[in-house]
């Protein structure tokens, strides 16, 4: 299963989501194979921190698109694959989309992010391999924790109306735990197993099983 985490707009939390999902999968006996196709290499950096601090389970992150193509097209691995990507490397992003079994789209609760997601969905539709049954899923990320703020509900309603994507029944909220865990090279469920961020991420990972 190749899961691509992506969107056109920066700052949607793609790398944070990709890292946490990769760590979650790494705890399973099958392990995980991770790829960072974003020139910023944020996923590489956080996994370097994890390695340097000796956290287990450890896993490697590749930046080699040709390696990803070889693994997928020649069916060289039974491990689940997580790919972090960005529009700053458009050819790699388009190729990853064409190879994907599942595309996971984090969407921030703003009108600008909804517009960006609409454009991203057009790119996805243009580059899906018709031979693959690719699942396209979206969810609200970095949701506001204050009940009085309407933007999150409005963005979720807009996401549900977009064509070409299935809105997931999950929100990840704007929490310090995500920034802290990222800087320490730990999944939020490793850093604080009973915390709110941990419960959110576990729910997302379970929905993707």
How would you characterize this protein structure?
With 209 residues, the protein is of the alpha/beta class. It has one domain: P-loop containing nucleotide triphosphate hydrolases (Rossmann fold, 3-Layer(aba) Sandwich), CATH 3.40.50.300. Helices cover 46% and strands 18% of the residues. It is built from 9 helices and 7 strands. It has helices spanning 14-26, 42-52, 65-73, 90-99, 111-127, 151-161, 176-184, 188-191, 196-208, and strands spanning 2-5, 33-36, 61-62, 81-84, 102-107, 135-143, 166-173. Strands 3-2-4-1-5-6-7 form a 7-stranded parallel sheet, sandwiched between helices. Helix 2 (42-52) links the parallel strand 2 and strand 3. Helix 3 (65-73) runs parallel beside helix 4. The protein starts with a strand and ends with a helix. 42% of the residues are buried. The mean pLDDT is 95.
